[in-house]
Specification:
Strand content: 5-15%
Number of strands: 8
Strand order of the largest sheet: 3-2-4-1-5-6-7-8
CATH class of the largest domain: Alpha Beta
CATH superfamily of the largest domain: P-loop containing nucleotide triphosphate hydrolases
Radius of gyration: 24 Å
Order of helices and strands: HHHHEHEHEHEHEHEHEEHHHHHHHHHHH
CATH architecture of the largest domain: 3-Layer(aba) Sandwich
Bound molecules: guanosine-5'-diphosphate
Number of helices: 21
Structural class: alpha/beta
Shape: flat
Number of domains: 3
């Protein structure tokens, strides 16, 4: 994903790193490269123009203040502007309404609507929501069957519509069904066409009117490149979209869509699809994506930073344990978390890992708030418990939970996270984090 763009931009950055001073000419030259790189990655032209103009204005201003080298300053501006282009903040689903909260899925056929509906259902079910899946795609019985099967596989309820009923009636009936049976969320999948057509747009507008969804998500295939932008524009004009899901980012898409869809629709990318599997949906992190695009994901820079900030002896100790692949206990886990926080939190750490490792690590879904909570829980344990979590039975867990001001489930979750972390450590130690930490001994 975004590989071409990344390698091109890292080339530019490398050249800039060699510059003692950045003149207006240098900026212009570097920006020409950035512009080419973005266009090659299928970012829409108006978006690129706007982007370059912003970077230029800000870079020239910054050169004057700079305690950084001019090259660093430019990279920083490009990074900030890329983040801004993709929406700055992580955008969550907004389901705060009288239940059922309706999520309407819109997009072309093949964009991944049905798959994404199921993925969302899975995610919300995990958050203990009672979820109903419904399909209004009366034109393609196979699409309905696909969703029914996914629902069955995920053990999520599926609304069985009566035969030969119009989409809007199905939608109304599904909503009634969800209302009377106290569902928290109803996800409504709709019919797509291979290209934009008036009938489809009229139908989805009618569905929107009937359902009054709190979320109207536009699903778009990242592999569509420039076309994605046109489709996004059409849907955005037809419907009050609340967010975008960019699918198939795991493919060999040039990924420019991630950069332009937000700019064109003004709507946040809420999720990205990263595999065909029901687990392959992740919240979209603009800042992380910008870092990856810039190829800041080099382990070298992490080592540099880590060398400065990490307690060397600790690192060596952990590295040794990683090397032997066992003996990594909760005490080490806590030390590891503290180091992560020193290095700017997990997000910053992930950004600095090369793409594939970062993705592996992301799959373990830790976030910074969770890191702090985990630390609190470990602090409430005795050294013996930390060394040997197996002795943690119900009464100890209750005591620890009370000590940390959390629920027993949280303690259980931590133990699960710890196991995951052990697994992650093992996989990273094969060539990534382990090697990196070992490198820090000296
Ligand atoms: P719909 O016609 O919009 O409902 O699209 P589908 O949900 O049927 O998806 C079309 C194809 O894209 C299916 O083969 C999906 O498995 C695949 N797909 C959907 N999302 C992703 C994704 O994020 N990554 C990958 N690799 N494939 C995806």
């Amino acid at each position: 994903m975004l590989d071409t763009l990344t390698s091109r931009l890292s080339g530019i950055i490398k050249n800039l790193r060699g510059q003692a001073r950045l003149t207006e000419d240098n900026i212009a030259e570097a920006l020409r490269e950035v512009r080419m790189a973005l266009l090659e990655a299928d970012v829409a032209l108006p978006v690129v123009k706007d982007f370059i103009a912003h970077v230029k204005a800000r870079a020239l201003g910054r050169e004057v203040i700079g305690s950084l080298t001019p090259g660093q300053a430019l990279i920083q501006v490009v990074h900030e502007e890329l983040t801004r282009l993709m929406g700055n903040q992580v955008a969550d689903l907004d389901l705060a309404t009288t239940p059922p909260a309706v999520i309407l899925m819109a997009g072309l056929q093949g964009s991944g609507k049905t798959t994404t509906s199921a993925k969302l259902a899975r995610l919300l079910k995990e958050q203990k929501k009672k979820v109903l899946l419904a399909s209004c795609d009366v034109y393609r019985p196979a699409a309905i069957e696909q969703l029914r099967q996914l629902a069955r596989q995920l053990q999520v309820d599926f609304y069985e519509a009566p035969e030969a009923v119009r989409p809007v009636e199905i939608a109304r009936a599904a909503l009634d069904f969800a209302r009377t049976r106290y569902y928290d969320v109803a996800i409504v999948d709709t019919a797509g066409r291979l290209a934009i057509d008036q009938e489809m747009m009229d139908e989805i507008r009618a569905l929107h009117e009937a359902l009054k969804p709190i979320e109207t998500l536009f699903v778009v295939d990242a592999m569509q490149g420039q076309d994605a932008v046109n489709v996004a524009r059409a849907f955005n004009e037809a419907l009050p979209l609340t967010g975008v899901v960019l699918t198939k980012l795991d493919g060999d898409a040039r990924g420019g869509a991630a950069l332009s869809v937000r700019a064109v629709t003004g709507k946040p990318i809420k999720f990205v699809g990263v595999s065909e599997k029901p687990t392959g949906l992740e919240p979209f992190h603009p800042e992380r994506m910008a870092s990856r695009v810039l190829g800041m994901g080099d382990v070298l820079s992490l080592i540099e930073e880590a060398r400065r900030q990490v307690d060397q002896a600790q690192a060596a100790k952990i590295a040794k344990k990683l090397k032997v692949g066992k003996g990594f206990d909760l005490e080490d886990f806590r030390a590891q978390l503290q180091q992560m926080q020193k290095m700017g939190g997990l997000a910053a750490l992930l950004d600095k890992l090369p793409g594939n490792l970062a993705q592996a690590a992301q799959g373990h879904s830790l976030d910074d708030r969770l890191l702090r909570r985990i630390e609190g829980i470990i602090n409430s344990m005795t050294p013996e418990e930390r060394a040997n979590p197996a002795i943690l039975k119900a009464s100890r867990k209750r005591r620890i939970a009370a000590g940390a001001g959390v629920q027993v489930q949280d303690v259980n979750r931590l133990l699960k996270q710890f196991e995951d972390m052990q697994k992650m450590m093992k996989s990273l130690s094969k060539g990534g984090l382990g090697k990196m930490l070992r490198g820090m001994k000296g």
